[in-house]
Amino acid sequence: MNDSKDSNDPLPSLNALRAFEAASRHLSFRRAAEALGVTEGAIGQHIRGLESELGVKLFERRPRALILTDNGQLYASTVRRAFDLLIDATRAIRPQSLKIAISVTPTFAAKWLIPRLPDFTNMHPGIDLRIVASDRLSHFQSDGVDIAVRYGSPPFGPGLAADLLFEDVLIAVAHPRLLADQARDHDRFPDKVALLHDAHSMWPQYLTRVTGRPGTLDRKNIRFNQTALAVDAAMEGQGIALAHPAFVSRDIAAGRLVRVGDAELLTGAGFYIVTPRKPVHREPVATLREWLHGQAASALSPVSS
């Protein structure tokens, strides 16, 4: 990240501004260093130099947090817009490419998108698709993301368009052998089996839906930060997980999982396709969006392996 700068130039060095923009976005010198491919020490050196040159403090450094000062927030907003303009200008003069990136959550990638990818690549061999699996909301321009699938409810941010892919509905699933010692009574939920939680922790609402009374969790509970991990644990016979039918349809069809009861819980959230209102790669983004909707229309159908 070495660059030279004229002593009469009123602007700070470009590398210092890049370091500041990344640190202000991630609120972490470590994550900013990872994003730029440099050391954490280099980020800190750039920030200290920038603060010295500007004569203002940009960050409050606390033991477990990095917080922008008022000056830092104002400067970060302006610097980010400047970098966005540079990105737009650079992309505008380059030949349009059919390379596009889609940002999805790890669970959506593992349980829904990846099993269906052969269909997309066979239909559109000229589109080079990059998949970014992260729970973090992407910054479309600086992260180089063209389209995202996100869980929740719109709006997802200014300048972004969101359309519903499918609503979130949860069913309970477990490995067949786990229920062998319990009667398959659809009117009675198994009460001696561990509950496998994900980050959304919808078990209280689900049990209320099933039993008609406030859900109780006075049983063994195992907690994961991702739905995919809870589903994988269910396939290992470790308990009962909640998941969207589209994420477990293949495993149910293959006999790795079975539904536990008939109840379904509509959470009120959904999975949305999110794009900038003015996408850089308009045609391939439109193609991918159309394909995603087509797949969602048959999301509950098993996917061939």
UniProtKB/TrEMBL annotation:
Q: Which InterPro entries match?
A: LysR-type_TF_proteobact-type, LysR_HTH_N, LysR_subst-bd, WH-like_DNA-bd_sf, WH_DNA-bd_sf
The organism's place on the tree of life at top rank: Bacteria
Q: Which GO molecular function, any one, fits this protein according to its record?
A: DNA-binding transcription factor activity
Q: So what family is this one in? A: Belongs to the LysR transcriptional regulatory family.
Q: Which residues form a coiled coil?
A: none
Q: Sorted alphabetically, which Pfam families does this protein's record hold?
A: HTH_1, LysR_substrate
This protein's name: LysR family transcriptional regulator
Question: Carries keyword DNA-binding?
Answer: yes
Q: Where do the HTH lysR-type domain residues begin and end? A: 12-69
Question: What GO terms describe the biological role, i.e. biological process, of this protein?
Answer: DNA-templated transcription
Give the keywords, sorted.
DNA-binding, Transcription, Transcription regulation
Matches recorded under PANTHER family: GLYCINE CLEAVAGE SYSTEM TRANSCRIPTIONAL ACTIVATOR, HTH-TYPE TRANSCRIPTIONAL REGULATOR
Q: Which organism does this sequence originate in? A: Caballeronia hypogeia
What are the leading ranks of the lineage? Bacteria, Pseudomonadati, Pseudomonadota, Betaproteobacteria, Burkholderiales
